[in-house]
Write a structure and sequence with these properties.
The chain has helices at about 15-25, 45-50, 65-75, 95-105, 135-140, 155-160, 175-180, 210-220, and strands at about 5-10, 35-40, 60, 80-85, 90, 110-120, 125-130, 155, 185-200. By secondary structure, the protein is of the alpha/beta class. β2 (about 35-40), α2 and β3 form a beta-alpha-beta unit.
Length: about 220
């Protein structure tokens, strides 16, 4: 019997890419997926994009409250025993869920599986391959190495033990969360390219680095 996998897409003003992101989940080879898309108070055409899918998956709109609270909301209503998230401008390749679930089933000691991924541009053209580093909690904690990227899947019971994302963090909530989740057990690097991380002018990757943003890793380490 296949475990149910829940993927949450937090959507905020990425209407130009959201449809491709959603289709990348709907077109997975793995059959048992619960998709939850939460519109975090977008002011662009996000709602129109979502209405176009009808009732193919669960979606709703709420007042803007940020990525962390939006993801925590989605995971709190998830029915799957395996969880993941996908940014509204990123994509999963068709085998992503199937391959990561295979590894989680075969390796009961791991709490999370993460693959390699491509950097893609605004037109979904491949820029280069990102080979994720092998997992080391020591490297993650001491050298600020955030190994999991697009296509990370983790066990729900471990999420419930670790707690949700920290809403006070604006730039590195994923890294801080992986530090806490890593206390539940080891991660596994799957050396296969299974997703695309999009670089574009509107992405946080290209945003101006403020003093507050630069100071956030120090605040995480002191917590």
């Amino acid at each position: 019997m296949n475990p149910l996998v829940t993927i949450v897409i937090p959507a905020y003003n990425h209407a130009n890419y959201l449809k491709e992101s959603i289709y990348s989940v709907l077109n997975q080879t793995y059959p048992d997926i619960e998709l939850i898309v939460l519109d975090d108070g977008s002011t662009d055409a996000t709602q129109e994009v979502l209405k176009g899918f009808g009732d193919q998956f669960f979606w709703e709109t709420h007042r803007n409250m940020g990525q962390a609270k939006t993801l925590n909301k989605g995971w709190s209503i998830a029915r799957g025993s395996i969880l993941s998230y996908l940014s509204a401008d990123d994509i999963l390749y068709p085998l992503a869920v199937e391959r990561c679930v295979e590894e989680l089933k075969a390796r009961p000691e791991i709490v999370l599986c993460y693959p390699d991924f491509h950097l893609i541009d605004s037109g979904s053209r491949v820029i280069r391959l990102v080979s994720a580093p092998e997992y080391s909690y020591e490297d993650m904690a001491l050298n600020f190495i955030c190994a999991p990227g697009v296509g990370a899947f983790f066990r729900k019971h471990c999420f419930e033990e670790a707690g949700g994302w920290d809403p006070s963090l604006s730039y590195h909530p994923d890294y801080e969360y992986w530090l806490r989740l890593g206390l539940q057990g080891p991660f596994f690097h799957l050396p296969e390219c299974l997703g695309g991380f999009r670089l574009h002018e509107g992405s946080q990757t290209f945003s101006t680095v403020s003093v507050f943003r630069g100071d956030e890793p120090l605040r995480i380490m002191k917590a």
